[in-house]
Amino acid sequence: MWRATEMTAVDERGMTKYFEELEPPEGIKVELLRGEIVMMATPDLVHNRIVVDVQDQIPRKRWERLQTTDVDIIDEASEPIPDLVVLERGVAPDSGHLVPSQLVTLVVEVVSKTSVDRDYGIKRSIYAAGKIPAYLIIDPIVAHSVLLTDPIGEGDQADYRGQWITKFGDPVLLDLLGIELDTSEFGILTGVRRHRLP
């Protein structure tokens, strides 16, 4: 993992340009999070099954459900790649690899053993700064989901006002999508140290 610290605006633009030209090895996911390039290995099967389960529950006729799509966060040196991006059908650009954050209704991140701090920390702030209405963290380490809504603030001070924690097995009410998400078949990651977040 490379780190870029104490960057000026020019440095951040340079890092964004470098990031856009970066060609990672196959199977490696690469994100730009506030000027820091983060590389991750292919996720666990538990992770992938949860993402597919969530995607399958979101009505395709009304919503576009995109995996491995970069989100362009306004006024940020960030291009996160959520596990799932949900937006109204027909609003996304016809081509390209970036979806502007103002078009996104919901982002979903499934926590892995190496992403706990990022998913609960910097990504919470980045998605709120991008004014994404809802951020759903699904955590197979501690078997709960955290729905964050009502983004406020700017930059690294941005956050979500609303927070609802739901145990696996109980439905998650996604009002913005008009659905109740069934979590009863979400798998659990075993052999991973538990944490106390959020």
TrEMBL record:
Pfam families: Uma2. CDD domains: DUF820-like. Signal peptide: none annotated. InterPro entries: Nuclease_put_TT1808, Restrct_endonuc-II-like, Uma2. Residues 19-180 form the Putative restriction endonuclease domain. This is Putative restriction endonuclease domain-containing protein. It comes from Streptomyces dysideae.
